[in-house]
Fold this protein.
Amino acid sequence: MDKIVVKNLCFKYKENKEETLSDINLMFDNRSTAIIGQNGAGKTTFVKLLKGLLKQNSGEIIVCGKDTKDSTAAELAKYIGLVFQNPNDQIFKSKVIDEVMFGPLNIGMSSETARKNSVEALKILGLDNLIDENPYDLGLSERKLITIASIVAMDTDIIIFDEPTIAQDFAGKEKIKRLIKELRNKGKTVLTIIHDMDFVAEVFERTIVFNKGRVILDGNTKDVYSNEEILKKAYLELPHVTQLCRQLGYNETFLTVDDFVEFYKNN
Ligand SMILES: Nc1ncnc2c1ncn2[C@@H]1O[C@H](COP(=O)(O)OP(=O)(O)OP(=O)(O)O)[C@@H](O)[C@H]1O
């Protein structure tokens, strides 16, 4: 079933002359989905509309059966969680556990379930030893993971990450990769705005490309990455292994080194 249906969506910020989003038509099922596109393409605006933080000028957005135009952001928070790009926009409590439990409590979860979910989410991200710390005493990468845990703990059907890998080293990226796969296996719909094309290739089943407020590509990641010319025009650079294989004359699109090695061994 499609958890989000977007029809003929248009949006313009009052102070801007041009539309930021024009005629967007998309449906989201359980596939893990990356939303990519150059800076200013409209990705963050799009997810803010899904979450009900902005209201469209025209078109329709249905989230878990609810029309976002008739729903408050508080009502939609039960269905859709959004992790902001900058953790400092989200964190305000002085203890990690209180910060992570805030969202679950706010949507009406019992404190017992909120605590259980919060500890579980912190554990998945390897942060359960920081429960009593002040988030502001921690580094940017840990603060970012805490904001991710706090949304995961809300156990919403749809979870959106805005640039989750920023400020993460290899270990942090691996944690986020594992988390996204785990959420997907639990049947959650995970949408992620991201610039890291290698991460997209390794993790996401579906990729949507935004360009100047429109969707220019949408499909399984391998098919989308096969449209080299369109991606180039949108100033998006393919992963190095994909480029290398193309330059070596392979017609097939390889998303990861493992993909290529597997193919190479069998041919
Ligand atoms: N609050 C706002 N008021 C007016 N214009 C805005 C506002 N927020 C964003 N914009 C403009 O809308 C356009 C789309 O911005 P948006 O942040 O949605 O793009 P993005 O694809 O998420 O970019 P990035 O990858 O840099 O985060 C940009 O031209 C931006 O300047």
